[in-house]
Amino acid sequence: MSIFVLGIDLGKNVCSLVGLDEVGAVVLRRRLRRDGLEDFVGRLPPCIVAMEACCGAHHLGRVLGAMGHAIRLMSPEYVRPYVKANKNDDRDAEAIAEAATRPTMRFVPVKSEAQSDIQALHRARSRLVSERTALINHLRALLLERGS
């Protein structure tokens, strides 16, 4: 079994994996719990590991990249056209693997831990600002109801 591209559809607890060989034929279909994913992929020879750029993909990309795999993260909207039939996790993983082989596909660079931390801080601050604004608007509306 020679895996050229491994497509991973990340789930909350269970991930779907589809491995393609050099000609694009499916040679592996498997579902793994998230905690066993690193061990399984770590035992594979270096290959292209493709995922949608979503929650947890950057961390997993850093870990698997350190194991020698080439990481390709894609925006989910670019993967959607490659889903062949009704959407499910296994078909999504196959679509991810197929999309990663396309020469015109645009990939998202894997964020470092520092970049992820800064983004988390910016998002937390943005959320606090919007909650503060909503609270101020709510209080203003209550005061207007009382004639103030």
Automatic annotation (TrEMBL):
Domain of life of the source: Bacteria
Pfam families for the chain: DEDD_Tnp_IS110
Occurrences of domain Transposase IS110-like N-terminal (ranges): 6-144
NCBIfam families: transpos_IS110
Record-linked PANTHER family: PUTATIVE TRANSPOSASE FOR IS117-RELATED, TRANSPOSASE FOR INSERTION SEQUENCE ELEMENT IS1111A
Record's protein name: Transposase IS110-like N-terminal domain-containing protein
Species of provenance: Nitratireductor thuwali
